[in-house]
Amino acid sequence: MTSEAGACPLVGGASLCACARGLAHGGGAGAGWPFAEPPLLLTVSHSQITRLYSRFTSLDKGENGTLSREDFQRIPELAINPLGDRIINAFFPEGEDQVNFRGFMRTLAHFRPIEDNEKSKDQNGPEPLNSRSNKLHCKKYEPSYTIAFRLYDLDKDDKISRDELLQVLRMMVGVNISDEQLGSIADRTIQEADQDGDSAISFAEFVKVLEKVDVEQKMSIRFLH
Amino acid sequence: MQPPASPAASPGPGAPAGSELLRWQWREVQVPCLVAAWILVASLAKIVFHLSRKVTSVVPESCLLILLGLGLGGIVLAVAKKAEYQLEPNMFFLFLLPPIVLDSGYFMPSRLFFNNIGAILTYAVVGTLWNSFATGVALWGLHQAGLMDPGVEAGLMDFLLFGSLISAVDPVAVLAVFEEVHVNETLFIIVFGESLLNDAVTVVLYKVFNSFVELGPAHIHATDYVKGVVSFFLVSLGGTAVGLLFAFLLALITRFTKRVRIIEPLFVFLLAYVAYLAAEMVSLSSILAVTFCGICCKKYVEANISQKSRTTVKYTMKTLASSSETIIFMFLGISAVDTSKWAWDTTLVLGTLLFILLFRAVGVVLQTCVLNRFRLIPLDRIDQVVMSYGGLRGAVAFALVILLDGAKVKAKDYFVATTIVVVFFTVIVQGLTIKPLVTWLKVKRSDHHKPTLNEELHEHAFDHILAAVEDIVGHHGYHYWRDKWEQFDKKYLSQLLMRKSAYRLRDEIWDVYYKLNIRDAISFVDQGGHVLSAAKLSLPSMPSRTSMSESSVTNLLRESGSGACLDLQVIDTVRSRRDKEDAVMHHVLRGSLYKPRRRYKASYSRHFISPDKQERQDKEIFRQNMKRRLETFKSTKHNVCSSKSKARLKEKGRKKKGISLTSDSPNGKTQRNVPWQEAAPVLVMVSSDEEESNSSETEREDDEGIVFIARATDEVLQGKKTPSSLDVCPSPCIIPPSPTLAEKELPWKGDQADLAVYVSSETTKIVPVDMQKAWNQSISSLESIASPPGIETGPQHKRFACPVLEEQPQSASQAMPEQSSCFQFPSHVSKSSRSQSDSSPDGTEQQELQPLMAAEEPSRILPSMEPRWLIQFNRASQL
Question: Looking at the partner chain, which of A87, A116, A189 has a beta carbon nearest the beta carbon of B468?
Answer without folding.
Answer: A87
